[in-house]
Specification:
This protein has 418 residues and is an all-alpha fold. The protein contains 18 helices and no strands. The protein has helices at residues 2-16, 19-32, 36-60, 65-72, 75-92, 94-111, 116-135, 141-168, 178-182, 184-193, 197-215, 220-251, 264-277, 281-311, 317-332, 336-366, 371-394, 397-404.
């Protein structure tokens, strides 16, 4: 049980831990200043707690979330919601972000500012070709990611964290940004959204079920116990690396000379690694970041391709894998910050819906809930999330004031109580 749980946990952790998991914690640490602990608490709650709970609940039902949502809300809503979710965590946001982050953090400092777009194009051609090669054989993903690549990048990240803590742990953090001074926990909670892990949990729960079934179990009790082992191990790995990376960002204060559109988290990682290990450390960082992001890319291509092939079987899995790889390749060449900017509004809509569905599934296991009640709940949450994003994006003062009247709006959770 422990061995099976450990192997599956390494596979899932490797698939989960990608671009956002590397860059957002050090950025949060840097910007939160003296408000570090409430900020990281909010980040861990949305980035780990909700994600792992979503994963475990989805894995406990071998038929997956599409069955749960179809039964409790409606089949049409389940298909549309999951299609949008898979496209978001797949070719439109998460897949291109992993490639862009690997290039931005690992290779931009090596090549300088000249011909960046050309080098990004060359890098993404090689990167996505290799990811597609692995994705074409999804049955081998446990060996390629779980047993080989995940331990490699995890050990390298730990080396950076430990060395950074020893060198910079005594430094005082800088002043917190205005956002973290106003609401450290709420801002940290929203940053946890950006990792995409709670959304990815819906997709990766299917991968977890397939992997666990390949390993084989003597009884349902052993299967369920192993799922909880998987959740516990992934939580520990995430927690340790998140805390370490955020601590590094909180105490490393030498981020200087950044371009206006530079990604702070990427810059902290790059400059801290060079300061700790010397000029040659950038090669170390490039390998670490690329392997970290690559495992997520390959895993997401597999998960997204399998979902769409199952939902729309007229197109083969391999055709979907190629299509989504090409879309991810094209969007990756827009650059890291542009990808993050246009992904945030969609995440602010999808996350509340996902959390609400998970809460309904859990509650329904203990208490009988009426189908109309569950449908109304999801509809209200969807409406509030949509209006919040519209008000924020278009700066509609009246709509924003209305949203701010709702409980917990100050903590960025106006949809929770209704």
């Amino acid at each position: 049980m422990l061995k099976k749980g450990g192997l599956t946990a390494l596979l899932l952790f490797g698939m989960f831990f990608g671009a956002g998991n590397l860059t957002f914690p050090p950025q949060l640490g840097f910007e939160s200043g003296g408000h570090f602990w409430p900020a990281i608490a909010g980040f861990v709650l949305s980035g780990i707690g909700i994600a792992i709970l979503t994963l475990v609940i989805g894995t406990l039902n071998p038929k997956g979330y599409i069955h749960e949502i179809s039964q409790k809300i409606s089949p049409k809503f389940a298909l549309v919601y999951l299609a949008v979710l898979y496209l978001s965590i797949g070719p439109f946001f998460a897949i291109p972000r992993t490639a862009a982050a690997a290039f931005s953090i690992g290779f931009t400092p090596l090549i300088g500012s000249g011909h960046t777009n050309l080098w990004l194009f060359v890098f993404t051609v090689i990167y996505f070709a290799l990811a597609l090669w692995i994705a074409m054989n999804p049955s081998k993903i446990l060996d390629s990611i779980g047993r080989i690549l995940t331990p490699v990048f995890a050990i390298m990240i730990v080396m950076v964290i430990v060395a950074g803590a020893l060198k910079y742990g005594g430094h005082s953090p800088q002043a917190a940004s205005q956002a973290y001074q106003a609401s450290a926990f709420g801002n940290g909670f929203l940053e946890g959204y950006n990792t995409l892990d709670a959304l990815a949990s819906v997709a990766f729960s299917v991968v977890a079920v397939v992997t666990l079934n390949q390993l084989g179990f003597k009884s349902k009790k052993e299967y369920i116990s192993t799922i909880w082992v998987v959740g516990f191990v992934v939580t520990l790995l995430f927690g340790a690396l998140y805390l370490g990376l955020a601590f590094l960002g909180n105490h490393f204060l030498q981020v200087a000379g950044l371009p206006k559109d530079a990604n702070i988290g990427a810059s902290v990682l790059s400059q801290a690694t060079q300061a700790i290990f010397g000029p040659a450390a950038q090669i170390f960082l490039a390998i670490m970041v690329t392997v970290t992001c690559f495992t997520t890319t390959a895993g997401l291509i597999v998960a997204t391709g399998e979902f769409f092939h199952k939902a729309f079987p007229k197109v083969s899995y391999k055709a979907y894998a190629i299509i989504f790889t090409l879309i991810g390749f094209a969007i990756a060449n827009l650059g890291l910050n542009n990808i993050i900017a246009f992904s945030v509004p969609v995440l602010l809509i999808l996350y509340p819906i996902t959390i609400t569905i998970v809460m309904i599934v859990i509650a329904n296991k203990f208490v009988a809930l009426s189908k109309p009640g569950m449908q109304i709940t999801v509809a209200v949450v969807t409406l509030i999330a949509l209006l919040s994003v519209i008000g924020s994006q278009f700066k509609l003062a009246g709509l924003n004031a209305l949203i701010n009247f709702l409980p917990l709006s100050g903590a960025s959770l106006p949809w929770l109580i209704p």
